[in-house]
Design brief:
Layout (H helix, E strand, L loop, with lengths): L1 E2 L9 E14 L10 E14 L5 E12 L14 E9 L8 H7 L4
Antiparallel strand pairs: 1-2, 2-3, 3-4, 4-5
Length: 109
């Protein structure tokens, strides 16, 4: 979902919701394990992406990681804790589209 002006080709503000699987490095500093290993976690996140120009984005996100049922007993200190993230993206390439290609493929933008 995005917010912008109807005469603009793109939105200036987008909202994002994410679901994913990730690998978590378990060690004696962050959990109760005998040796270092990797566990699986389910990630839920949400955020906002601000587009101040055609070549730059700035994103602010929050989320949580939840260990899988097989690894709950390791008492990972970040399990179900809220995290925050900031991302900056700057494009060094020219942004362009091929209008003819979209028309030929039947895709309407």
């Amino acid at each position: 979902m995005g917010i912008g002006k109807e005469w603009e080709k793109r939105s200036r503000l987008d909202f994002s919701v994410g679901v994913g699987l990730t690998g978590v490095a378990l060690n004696s500093k962050n959990s109760i394990v005998q040796e270092e290993r990797t566990a699986s976690a389910f990630t839920l996140s949400g955020g906002v992406l601000w587009k101040p120009s055609d070549i730059a984005n700035i994103g602010f996100f929050i989320g949580t990681d939840i260990l899988g049922s097989q690894d709950v007993g390791v008492d990972w200190i970040y399990n179900k804790q809220i995290w925050m993230g900031v991302g900056v993206n700057i494009s060094f390439n020219e942004i362009s589209t091929d209008e003819y290609q979209h028309e030929r493929s039947g895709v309407n933008w």
